[in-house]
Fold each of these.
Amino acid sequence: MTNKPIDDLEAIRQITEILANFSSEEQERIFRWSREKLGLKSIVAPSIATGGNPGGTPQTPVISIKQFNEEKKPKSDNQFALVAAYYYKFLAPQSERSEFIDGEMLQNATRLASRARLKKPTDTLNNCVKAGSLDRGERGKFSINTVGENLVAMSMPGSDK
């Protein structure tokens, strides 16, 4: 592929579409081989969830959602939704962690991060599903998937150029 996609989310849409018919084991292998082919470092997601603790015991982070938002600098409401979902899954204090995010949690995250409130937070979450970075759970609940995790962990903050 010599043509660069219009944006990161279009690349994700294309990759998601191509990999949709593969098993999760095959998808993992394809991602691993692709990363090796591109010369990228391996992603070690558990270290994020455990605060870098080699023993694997989750620790209370020293970062708030406001600090995490400032670090990641999301450029859109969709990116902010991913930042919030990632934060609540991996970085929030243990008592606030959640595999899922809903419109109410997202709206509360905007308040805590000193960000403008969303008119329809559930619409933003649905847009992330369409982009392939969140998965739907039970009614009104959404979970960040590996595509979304990688966007937050590896692609944010984006270049201003």
Amino acid sequence: MRADAAAERTTAHQRAWGWYDWANSAYVTTTGAVLISPYLTALARADVCPGLESGETCDADLSILGLPVAVGALAPYTITVATILSAVVLLFVGAIADRHPRPVRLLGGLAWTGAAAASLMFFLQGSNWQLGVVLVVVANLCFGASTVVYDALLNRIAHPDDRDKVSSRAWALGYLGGGLLLALNLGLMTAHESLGLSYGMAIRLSLLSAGLWWAGFTLIPVLGLRRIRGTTATPVDRRAGIVGGTLVQLRDTFRELRSYPQTLMFLLAYLFFNDGMQTVIASSSLYGIEQLGFRTEQMMITFLVVQFVAFGGALLFGAVAGRLGAKRTVLGGIVMWTLVVAFAFFVPRGAFTTWLLCAVLIGMVMGGTQALSRSLYSQLVPQGRESEFFSFYQAMERGTSWFGTLAFGLMFQLTGSYRPAILVTILFFVLGGLILTRVRVREGIAAAGNEQPRIV
């Protein structure tokens, strides 16, 4: 049985819920998008090419399980491994969350485990890229798992007509928080000499700050949503236990997915266009530093521009969706993504002003597309199975794409250039957009047994 919807769909709950976007965006921005890929690449380069002078290339490969791996492909491959693991683990997390009596406590536990891994990145130095790989996998896995629980709570705290607005505001808050910490870390890295710090120490302190920020601000949603209890809409067989019951539930869910063809169609579309977005986000710092020759500080400025523009972009897309519907607005965002990636391919090496224009365009479209995808999918999820269905969604969400990062890494491995690697993401946007046009949203909402919103 559902808890009283009126008691859960309160302004206080919606505000507390949105703070988790603020909390985890620090890790996504400072660590995931800006620092960890080039830093992990630098650690690996120091291992296989010790004593390499600035500007010199490293032609040696890493050896991982006996396989040769180009130094420049290590970071995208690491994200790929984390995502493949997530694709399995997140399904179990979603099923467990639907059966958990205190889903908000589960959210906190997963978030704080990921934050601990992010904080431990402070100890990465020298040539210790192996520890970095492990910590990135753990942090990304926990990030995805916590977001499964978090996204599913949107159905509990917001009416169908309010979800686009609530989701967009939370995304906007996340971009503001991620941008604020990134600005502080940019100041730290710029002034590291006057503070008596080495450049490496400044990077490590920035990595630490992202983990601590994630952990600290997670307290707000955990405390603010503490009265929300698990739903009993999913039957519990106590004789089967948590593990056995979860396996039974997953088996039943895979069987029942055939009853929700529009939900499946949306997930397939999201698999492609979100993989394109996540690959661009995760690989942009690598592209900017290695291909275009920008410094780390310049990439931090780039992401500051993206973050603060995305704050307004998320709110703008939310307002547009209120008039045109989420599906049409997301499709427009996918078209814009395709054009921006094509533009980025032609940015000349060292042309930082042109690169910043690209950042402004990405910021306009990024937050709104992600926020509205989340709220649109929430309409297609059956009641009582929110976490389980959002686990499918989250397996394809930000920081957990793997088709895109794998294609990006393979393209670099084959060509030795990041330009064709970034261009391959256009294929994901085109396929995702074409499939999304075929999704009949209102039919999917009816099949899931949900209340029809005024506009979709």
